[in-house]
Amino acid sequence: MTLPKYVIKRDGRKQLFEASKIAHSIWTAAKNVGGKDKKMADAIALEVLEYLADIYPTDQPLATYDIGSAVERTLVNRGHYKTVKEFIISREHRREEFTRKLKLGIKDDIGRLDYNSLFILKERYLTKDKFGNTTETPKQMLERVAKFVASSEKTDKLKKVWQEKFFDLMFEWKFLPGTRALANAGKPKPQMANCFVFEISDSIDDIFKTLYESSITKKYGGGCGYNFSKIRPKGDSVAGEPGLAAGPIEIMKMFDLPTSIFRQQGKYESGNMAILNVEHPDILEFISSKEKEGVLTKTNISLGVSNAFMEAVKKDTKWNLINPRNGKITNTIKAKAIWELVVTYAYRTGDPGMIFLDHINKNNPIVEKFGPIQATNPCGEIPQYPYESCNLGYMNLPVFVRKGDKIKATVDFDSLAQACKTATRFMDNVIDTSWFPVEGQRKTIKEFRRLGIGVVGWAEMLTELGIVYGSEESLQLAEKVSKCIADSCHEESIALGKEKGPFPNIIYSKWKKSKDQPRNVTTNTLPPSSGNAVIFGTSYSIEPYFALAYYQNVLGGVRIKNVNEKLAKLLKAEGIHVDNLFEKIFENHGSIQHIKEIPVHIKKLFLTAHEIHWRSHIAMQSAWQKNIDNAITKTINMSASETIETVEKAYKLAWEMGCKGVTIYRDNSKLSQVIEFGDSSDKDSIVMDEQKSMRELKGGDECPECGEKLLATEGCIKCLSCNFSLCQL
């Protein structure tokens, strides 16, 4: 039997003909309608091949249409009507997806991009000419990024070697750098870091210097984090004159304001993180600072909390408030009074969060020389010294799941470890090839060389493995996966230290006398990953699924259905028609738990964020944190029915379990409705006032880009449809 050597794809690409793909597509369709006999699928595929060999000449490439028609013909002749129906439906879905993607005018030359991935790449990250026309494909983007990042290697030979390895790592869909790198690599002033930290001193000159430097940083796409605890309290003396000090809250407002002016890439606003330590005299005002609508709308706020304060809360003892200007006690109040106010506002509004400073600095390798870290980036996952940046990258976890027809799916730890090592070199090179807008950043970033390699798709990995999110098995796997990532990245950092030299400040670190000296002060974190998750077509970071079915508004105002693809696949395998269930899932707020047609074992695998107990959310964060040397952005979701007492328990548990920070999101709180699934006239629906500024948007408001409902998660406001985000663009 002689077959044509090539096949012509729908987009005109010419590829080698692979007979195995016919058998795979037949078997997939058969399984989706309850088929059990793979040998029969293979036999039908062989019959299809024989038919193609008889009908089509070997010197002409086959069209995918002809192959599909041959499969349908053979299935009908064999009497497999359910399978052929499923095969036709699947072909039609692929055709529709191809047509939608075609309208974007961008080729999927990577071969695994869905519509949303292509859309976000075109809108945000692919190179454009001066008229706004897209001038590169996704593959060309990866080539551009790989070449530029590899350009820091010492020799032409090494540049070529690592350019190929970096490209393969990305093209195989194992890893992507943060979206700043995707957008800016190889361009003039290639600012590729996500966020930065600045010091706020108690001096008008220093304050305005920082205001200028942070504004310039925002102009070039960087979010900013600050700790305002050095600012003297409101009403304190200035130059001997009592009552003149504005206090840290007013200074925060001053830093909040320019954020809407200096928009990332000229389009969107960056975000801020404002931290105030719990011993500051203005801490009570800080806790309630976002109660009034329109105040600090561009800024996340978090308490800087010490172990001493948490112990004072446990023991119900008094707590001293100390003026940072002179170190004198200004007031003494019960620690629980502060604590109860924090809990109350977190219950009502989602603010403030908590940053556990002693946990952050417990294993800080350079704390003896540089003192404790006091600030983080806007989302809280990268504690940093002033002028440091977060240089983010993401491992795509579902790619590392290996499975066969007869064996249980497993994690390919060897492949994951190797990919992490290549990613570490990649991100280290990003530091050397990046441009930074402020001189202090250029110096400090290279002195510490802090990396933040994280993950996407944890929920998908668990589903592929048949493991329930929050179960003991999932927590054990979280520790195992995070250890593999952390160990691999650290090993490569040590290897890079020997090859290229350790980070300059290593002489002040715990490794100063060590034989193995790393290139980077830290290597791992768990950031929100919104942009990268959409590009990969997977879930955010280590978060569970938020919703399993929802509507999306796409180009041209078209409203489409969206069902979790892994859920759809499993339902089809059970013989359950997805389209018939979509409306039920939608009306059930994206949940499948009360739909009787869906088997229990599938329901367990597809718990949504609000169906997972808050203790399990914290346990998951804690399990990952054990091996992460930076911190974690993770939302602790709670139902609307939870009480203030529950929020209190969650904050305490997060501290007790070693988390470095914690953010509570209670459904239907002030940041309330995460996404709307019902009619827009529902009483829970929140309509955006046209007069609001962009940064006043909340969960439940309409996305200013596509009109879909916004999501309040991971310390930010996002859109599941088009990936609009206030703090991660």
Structure commentary:
The chain is an alpha/beta fold and 729 residues long. It has 5 domains: 6-103, no CATH class; 108-168, no CATH class; 169-189 and 391-532, no CATH class; 195-384, Anaerobic Ribonucleotide-triphosphate Reductase Large Chain (Alpha-Beta Barrel), CATH 3.20.70.20; 537-719, no CATH class. The protein is 42% helix and 14% strand. It has an 8-stranded mixed β-sheet with strand order 16-5-6-9-10-13-24-23. A 3-stranded mixed β-sheet has the order 2-1-3. Strand 25 (710-713) and strand 26 form a beta hairpin. It starts with 5 loop residues before the first strand and ends in a 10-residue tail after the last strand. Mean pLDDT is 86; it is low at 264-268, 553-558 and 671-696.
SSE topology sketch:
Layout lengths: L5 E3 L5 E3 L3 H13 L5 H18 L6 E2 H15 L2 H23 L11 H11 L12 H13 L5 H16 L3 E3 L1 H6 L10 E5 L4 H16 L3 E5 L20 H9 L6 E2 L3 E2 L2 E6 L5 H5 L11 E7 L1 H9 L2 E5 L6 E6 H15 L3 E4 H6 L4 H4 L4 E2 L6 E2 L4 E2 L1 E5 L4 E2 L7 E2 L1 H21 L5 H10 L3 E5 L1 H8 L6 H29 L29 H7 L12 E5 L5 E5 L1 H9 L4 H10 L12 H6 L8 H12 L9 E4 L5 H13 L4 E6 L43 E4 L2 E4 L10
Helix pairs in contact: 1-2, 1-4, 2-3, 3-4, 5-20, 6-7, 13-25, 16-19, 19-24
